[in-house]
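A brief tutorial aside. Many learners find it easier to grasp structure tokens once they have seen a single protein encoded end to end. The record that follows does exactly this for tRNA(Ile)-lysidine synthase. Read the sequence first, then the structure, and try to relate runs of similar tokens to stretches of the chain.
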Amino acid sequence: MGFSANRLFQFLQQLSSCRSYQIAYSGGLDSHVLLYSLVQLRLQFPEITLRAVHIDHGLNPDSTRWSGRCHEVCTALKVECKVIKVNAHPAKGESPEAAARQARYSALRKHISVGECLLMAQHQDDQVETVLLQLLRGSGPHGLAAMAKTMVFGDSYLLRPLLSFSRSELQDYAKKEGLVWINDPSNQDLSFDRNYLRHEILPLLRCRWPGLGQTVSRAARHQAEVMQLLDQQAHQDLNTINADENWLSVSALRALPPHRCRNLLRYWLKNQGLPLPDSFHLRRILTEVLPALEDRQPVITWFGAEVRRYRDRLYAQLPLPPHNPAIVIIWEAINPLTLPASVGGMLVLRLTQGSGLSVQQLQQGCVTVRFRQGGERIQLVDRGHSHTIKKYFQEQGIPPWQRDRIPMVYIGDTLVFVAGIGIAQSATAKPKEPSIMIEWMRG
């Protein structure tokens, strides 16, 4: 039957009741066909609202010219177009494709409106390439499920209505309508795995198996069903073990069969918004971190994430940035204090009476914010004598890698406040005395 605007609308109706669309518009063949056909539909269905967003990755010398071309096309079609510049250069150890994808999706997520659906123009050939790349990487069902037609995206949904159409069907439509699109020369660069598959391998496979696109897409749908079952099992396991959104119980994880433990870890990390570990790093978590003695503090790191253990808790987080605990920050203790990026958040003040730091005490010397060096002591209101900060951290179960990033407030050289621990007895306001409560807003 080929591609048409009416067939596109049929698929959109199957995917969602949404009628407000934001199109991820690169200006290439696929997104241009998607944009143009939706403009034609808008004539038949005036309730449809459209806008486009173009991501300028800055990776090609012509990227600025392409952005201008996309804006011109959208203006001619009477579609609002927003151009967003991103830094898509890969970090050390990161693949260029992954860096560009991460930058693109992060920008799109920030600019989607509530009630609006993001449309992306990946088609059947893209799906085939993704499945084969995941297969060659040894991926499981989550990878082989490839791209979903619909998925939650921020506060809205991401839809891929072209997954049932081949690249050749989109080209036929574009030629019939006389469309002109941008050709990115990097799509011919065979040093990229996807391009190598597209230009060198897939033509040979299609000669032998002409129905390759539909067959591989069907296999991806089967894997998506398996993925849903695995996620349901992981969700059930997550509800049965002692956990909150920040950590998992190590002893509960060890009680699970290995395959369910691996499945739960993937599910948990995905829900944390962290990159998933490959099989090597996942095996190290099971064989090195979970069996470690409680007084050990093992850590497993892969690009964009790390897993750490403290006592019976397993934590997952972004890799910690470098931090200098010797820094001293002068603070007038009047306005909120933005903390260094290695710490995060800010210290905010709230005026009160008799239950915080004495305002009079705060005026007795220079107020500074410092970080733990070791050996610091403080006597809290409900304690008979002073204890080391380390003892309080241990009592609170604060993991060691967080301790030298916890802000502490000094008046002169006297420690009067430790975030998450409390206020020194000597600096606590008397009943009805003006006082200040300090709160660490982590952001």
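Self-check: The mean pLDDT is 91. If you spotted this yourself, you are ready for the next section.
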